[in-house]
Structure formats: structure tokens, C-alpha cells
Amino acid sequence: MSPVLRLLPAITILAMLGPVAAGLWGTILPAFGHLPAVGLDGPSRVALDGLLDWPGLAAAVRLPVTTGLAATSISLVIVTLIVAGWSGTRVFAWFLRLLSPLLSVPHAAAAFGLAFLVAPSGLVARAASPWLTGWERPPDILVVGDPWGLTMVAGLVAKEVPFLLLMTLAALGQSAERQSLRVAGALGYGRVTGWLKAVFPRVYAQIRLPVYVVLAYSMSVVDVALILGPSTPPTLSVQIVAWMSDPDLAMRAVAAAGALLQLALVVAALGLWRLGEAAVARWGTAWAGGGGRRHLDEPVRLVGLGAASVSALSIMAGLAVLALWSVAAIWQFPDLLPDGLSARSWSRQAGALAATTGETVLIALAAAGIALALSVGCLEAEHRRGRPISTAALWLLYLPLLVPQTAFLPGLQTLLLTLGADIGRGPVIVAHLVFVLPYVFLSLGDPWRAWDPRQATVAALLGASPLRVLVAVRLPMLLRPLLTAFAVGLAVSVGQYLPSLLIGGGRVATLTTEAVALASGGDRRTIGVFAIAQTLAALLPFAAAIGLPALLWRNRRGLHG
Amino acid sequence: MADGLRLDGIAIDLAGEPLLRIDAEVGPGEVLTVMGRSGAGKSTLLAYLTGTLAPTFEARGRILLGGRDITCLSPDRRRIGILFQDALLFPHLSVGGNLGFGLRGGSRRTRRDRIDAALAEVGLEGFAERDPATLSGGQRARVALQRMLLSDPHALLLDEAFSGLDTDRRDRTRTMVFETARRRALPVIMVTHDEADAKAAGGARIQLG
Predict the structure, then answer these.
(1) Which among A103, A124, B16, B34 has the fewest CB atoms less than 10 Å away?
(2) CA distance B32 to chain A (A)
(3) What is the CATH number of domain B5-208?
(4) Between the CA of residue A408 and those of A37, A290, B41, what are the distances in Å?
(5) B149 within 8 A of B137, measured Cβ to Cβ
(6) Closest by alpha carbon to B152, among A469, A466, A460, A463?
(7) Top-tier CATH class for A63-325
(8) Separation between Cα atoms, residue A379 and residue A377, nearest integer Å
(9) Which residue is closest to B148 within chain A, CA to CA?
(10) Where are the strands (E) in A15-54, listed by range?
(11) Quick one: CA dihedral B9, B15, B16, B18, positive or negative?
(12) Is 1.10.3720.10 the CATH number for A356-553?
């Protein structure tokens, strides 16, 4: 094996974890009052006191814990019920086709869509006014930004259900689901009860890491919280970002202390979740061994389907409303539809749109391209060494997704500034790579390993060097999963908010940063334009990933679906 | 002693447990049949011979092909051809592209001629532009055989190569492969669980496990 290929796994781990470690390091020093740039020569309690003196602290600590745990458990329950009740049916297959594209819809766009649906002047209120509600003007109630973060939980659930569902599907393949269901059925178990008792434990063991990712993400998300979350006081993550952009540079030390608190909160919540797992496992083992055959199977099936449909529909309807607003002429409350359509919002934003789209695409292509190259290199090194990656390595892959963004990105920014490094596009690409790499690797890993290694043996014995086997046989045969992984990488990069904002130092304007910046304004037409552009930037690569292989391999039936 | 394929004191262990021991010599045009129940180490032996053995195994012993020690060579330098139960044609290449894959050197013209001749030899004239997925099982097996032969191997391995074919095709394909091996004086090692394969080969036989 060539030395470069031998080193590639180490380089990849460095690319994923280096920025996280550097960011945490850059957080710890200022958090303990050491930030020479603003004259703080710690260690001291300055930053900690600043944090403790903030009046919003209690709510900011409570909110991530309650909303994070709620969003994660609700998403998990919905996914479990829909799979328990429907996997293997035609309804389920149809549902998956509907849900898979939603995975790539950026969080910010989904959140805006939900806001446009449920706000007092949103589509739901319009549909019921004035005939049912009597409202002639939007009522003065706080739906979006409610102090408990309920709407934010709803937005997170709608986005995490497709993610957890696809992760669950991948796990189902290795769980002998059908055989277990058949055995349970033969013993007289209802479908849902049988699935929960016989299949769920194995599936959960495999989706545990993705569930942790959802919890850590939900607790520290910034863009969704800015759009749907409470604002006075906001969540801790939002406040950390506010401190980071404070003109008083000393507030960066307070932000760092907040970032450490954020990390501690996520670690504590993960610990709490682990305890919950143990409790559910204990109770569940007793329940499974108890022999009950049917527990409301039919109603539970319907509830599962209903909840999953609502979560999917809310994203799709939300996108439809965003699209409608982007082309709406006059649209008064309580009219259900605008008076007319106009391209004015699009043409007025054309200049800004072109520039930010260019920036977004450039960063996404670079990050996804590097991630794909590193992933292929790592998988090829694994293939040539003949040893699969270990569980420890899998944890490493998930680690950057488990450390809250707000815990290390502020520190990374401070560190880059302290070192006098230029912040801007280059570092933003590096920061995106931290989040893009794990998803690209996970997306490519399964199809890569499922490839018949005898093809490589045949090619090698025909005299092809390892490089030729890779380039002339394996990569062309895996074109479809390669393009899908690339599209996943592009979508993840397009959806990134915090890395672009913080590491870009306000100088890198992407579709996502522009869209989220509009959140506080309330110009619905412009929000519609940017949110739709953002969604298209994430979705179109998937269409290409499906269409391109079909076009290139149109004369090769062996490579179709 | 320089000709043929010699397996010199081959011993393969897995996790400290001995898995297989083999000492054999296969002359040019001869067939050595290796039989044994599944798990007896048949595919492990083939992996060792092709240089694709997983590092979890510990292997000792030398492989000599035509007097040349190939034990430590990478698979692409061993000059060994293999046929599996599945034809394993590359699905992204045409039939001609598959045949050309293993063909060494030559001008575009001579390559083209050799590919056409190889197809004609097995009754597949004019198939060069075809998509391998549109071929029947028997046609695929013949393309796989010709692809392997065009790479000019010095020995031939058969890994349950005829198990995928129905009885009628199986006899014909088997006869064709053995005759080709004899004509080209290739030593053959055949791994199989089928008594009829062993009988048709007619050479020495080793029982594993």
C-alpha cells in the first residue's frame, strides 16, 4: 500500500477532530479568564461571573435540556411506531419515497416553513379565519417563539424524523426483522407488540449513536432556535452566538464560559438519556417476557402513521408556503391565497442571490469533494488491509456530531483570531468538513463494503494494479452511491449555519446565513426567496445523483437500481 | 521440475488453530481437484494462491509457478487466472471491454482482432458491443473464460466454477475449460463439492477437513 493511502485514515481523523479539539482548547482558556487580546490574564473568575450575572441564565439552561430531550424522544417514538406498525408494507414504501428527500431539506428552511404555517398570520390561521375563528386580523398570541420552546420542538421533530427513520432502515437490514416478526406472529403476537418486543432492542442498539447525535444537535442548534425558539431569554446557544458578536470583545470570555456550560449540559443530558435507556431496558425486558400478545396494536399503528404524516406534511406544506410567499403580490390576512403572483421578490434579490449562491456552492463543492476523496481513501485502505473499521473508529466518526457546535466553534474562532490566521472562506471549508465528513463516510460505507470483493480479485488476477482496480472497476461500479454520498455532503454543507457565521467572521455570506439573518426582520417575501433557494441548493444534487447514473449507464442493465 | 504449479509445504492457521496443510504438484495440463465440506478451507486455499488472504490468517509455505516463486507477489503479478461460480463480468463495460481488460499490450487493431477471435472461438461472434447483462448464463460463463485466457495466465483456478449452470450447460462448459487447459498446458486447481466435476477432471484428488 502506498504511504499516502496508509496515512489517509489518520489524516481523515485529524480533519474531523482537529478543529473540534482546537476549538475546545480555544474555549477553555478564555472561559477561565485568560484572553490576552482584551487584557484578561487569567486564570480568574471574570468570565464565569459574567455568565452567572446574566439574568436569562436559568431559562437558557432549562430550555436546551427540556426541548432537546422532548424533541429526541418524540422523534424516536414516532419513528419506532411507524416502523413497528408498517415496515414491509406498501404504505411504508410509499412513505419512504416521500420522506427521503426531506432529509436534505436544510433545517433553517424547514423551520421557516413551519413558522409560516403556524404563526398567528400563518396558513393554518388563514384557513380557519374568519369563518371559524372570527379573526379579521392576526391574533396577538405567541406561537412562534413561545417561552417553552414548543414550536421549536415541533420543528426539530419534523426534521429529525426522516433522519432517524433512514438510520433505522439501515439498521433493519442487519436485524433479521422479518424472521423475528414471523416467529412472533406465529406465537400469536400482534404486529406492533411483536415488533417492539422482538425487533426493537436489536434496532435500537444500532441507532443509538444517531439518537445521541439528535439529542446533542437539538440541544445546541442555533438557526432553528433563532427562527422558532423563544427570544427573551433565548436558548444558551443563541446567547453564546450573541455574546460572540458583541462589540465588547471581553464578552468573548463570557461566551467561552457559556460554551463550556453548553458542553456540560449536553454531556449531562446524554448521561440522563443513558440512565433512561437502562430503565426502559429493565422495564422492557420484563414486559417482553410477560407474554402479553396484543397491546392496542391497531390504534397504535394509526397513531404512528398519523404522527409521521403530520411531521412530513408540515415540512412539505411549509416549503409550499415559502414558495408561495416568494412569488406573492399582495397577500392580506385572512386571505388563504395571495391576490396575484409576481416575480418581483426574486428579481429584486437576484444580485444578492447570485453572489450568495456562488459562495454556497463553492464551499459545498470543496467540502463535499474533500470529504468524498478522504472517505474513498479510507475505505480503500480498509479494503486493502483486509480489516474492517472497529467500533472505536465508529465512535470517532460520530464524535464531531456529538460535541455541540456552540461548544467548540466559538473557541475555534477565537483561536484563529489569536493566531492572527485569516478567517474567511478557507477556514469555513475546513469547519464544514468537520460536519460533512462523517455523513459522507456513513453514506458511502455500507454500499462500499457491500461490493463483491471477488470483482477485485478477478480484476487483479487479470493483471490490474490496485489503483487500476479502484479507478477502472470499483469506482465506476459504485458511481451511484458515490454520487449520493457527494449529494449528502453538499446538502449538509449547504445547511450549515454556525460554522459559516462564526468561522467566516461575518465576511462569508451563504444562502443559509442570509436566510437566517432575515429571521428577525419579518420580510416574508425575501425569506421565502432565500429559504427556497437554500432548499433547491440542497435538493438538486440529489436529483442529479439519481439522474446521472441512469444517463451514463443507460446501456448497462446490470447497473440499474 | 520447473514446469507446473507446486504447493510447497503450505500451512494456514486461524487464531492459532491449524486450518489446512497441503503439499501438491500439478503438472501442465493436469487438474488437481480439491474437495471438502464447507468451512474446510477450500476458499482459504484459493485466497492464499491468489494473494488475497485476509491478514487474520497465518500462512506459511511457498507457491512455485513454472519454477518462479510467486508466494510474495501481489495478485496482479502472479499470472494466475480464476473462474468463480458467477461469471463476474464487469457490468459497466461491454463484452469487448471485459475481454480487453485483461489483454496485455498490442495496438488498437491487434487488440480488436484478438477480442473478436476470442469471441468467435466460443461461438459469440459479433458480441463485442453487447451489454453483459443481456447475455444468458452460459454465454456469460464463456465470456468469463475467454477474458481470463486473454490475460495469458500460467495457471488456472476454478472456484465451484460450474455450480451456477444447469446440467446440460455444465457438462459442455466443463469439457471446454478442461480441453482449453490441456491445449495450453495450464496446471489447474479445481475446488468443488460436486462428484461429477471431480470425475470429469480425472486427475489427482485431495480431500480437505
Answers:
(1) B16
(2) 20
(3) 3.40.50.300
(4) 19, 47, 52
(5) no
(6) A463
(7) mainly alpha
(8) 6
(9) A462
(10) 34-35, 40-41
(11) negative
(12) yes
pLDDT at A156 over 90: yes
At B148, list the grid cell: 481470463
d(C-alpha A168, C-alpha A165), whole Å: 5
Separation CA A528–CA A113 (nearest Å):
9
Share of chain A above pLDDT 70, in %: 99
Where is pLDDT greater, at A436 or B170?
A436
Residues comprising chain A, all counted = 561
Q: Which of A476, A495, A485, A474 is nearest to A538 (CA)?
A: A495
**What is the CB neighbour count within 10 angstroms for residue A500?**
27
Q: List the one residue out of A168, A483, A121 whose CA is nearest residue A336.
A: A121
Per-domain boundaries in chain B = 5-208
Residue A101 DSSP code: G
Beta bridge partners of B68: B65
Cell numbers describing residue B20: 489446512
What ipTM is given for this predicted complex?
0.94
Task: Report the DSSP pairing between strands B31-35 and B5-14.
Answer: unpaired
Residues of A in contact with B51 (CB under 8 A): 460
Q: Looking at chain A, which residue has its C-alpha nearest residue B57?
A: A386
Under 8 Å between Cβ of A105 and A494: no
Taking residue A205's Cβ as centre, other Cβ atoms within 10 Å add up to 10
CA B104, B106, B108, B109 dihedral sign is negative
Structure-block grid coordinates of residue B194: 460436486
Query: Cβ distance A222 to A241 under 8 Å?
Result: yes
CB-based contact B114:B91 (threshold 8 Å) = no
Write the CA distances from A155 to A109, A521, B148, integer angstroms: 10, 20, 58
Q: Are A357 and A365 in contact (CB under 8 A)?
A: no
Contacts of B57 in chain A (CB under 8 A): none
Q: Which residues of A515-539 are buried (b: 16+ CB within 10 A; e: fewer)?
A: bbebbeeeebbbbbbbbbbbbebbb
Give every strand in the sheet of B80-83, ordered side by side: B80-83, B155-159, B188-191, B31-35, B204-207
Q: How many residues does chain B have?
A: 209
Q: Which residue of A has its CA nearest to B100?
A: A462
- For residue B69, which phi and psi values (nearest 5 degrees)? -80, 110
Cite the residue boundaries of each domain of chain A with CATH code 1.10.3720.10: 63-325, 356-553
Nearest residue to A219 (alpha-carbon basis) of A192, A242, A237:
A237
pLDDT tens digits along A333-386: 999 999 999 999 999 999 999 999 999 999 999 999 999 999 999 999 988 887
Cell numbers 431496558 correspond to A281
Alpha-carbon distance values, A342 to A416, A515, B58, B163 (Å): 45, 20, 73, 67
Pick the closest to residue A326 from A198, A91, A501, A518 (CA basis).
A518
Q: How many Å from the N-terminal Cα to the C-terminal Cα in chain A?
A: 33
- Are B156 and B187 within 8 A, CB to CB? yes
Q: Is the model's pLDDT at A166 over the cut of 80?
A: yes
Contact at CB, B91 and A556, closer than 8 angstroms: yes
Q: Say which residues have a Cβ less than 8 Å from residue A336's Cβ, sequence separation at least 6.
A: A123, A126, A127
When pLDDT is averaged across residues B172-191 and rounded to a whole number, the result is 92
Distance CA(B51)–CA(B31), nearest Å, equals 21
Residues of B whose CB is below 8 A from A553: 92
Interface check B55 vs A, CB under 8 A = yes
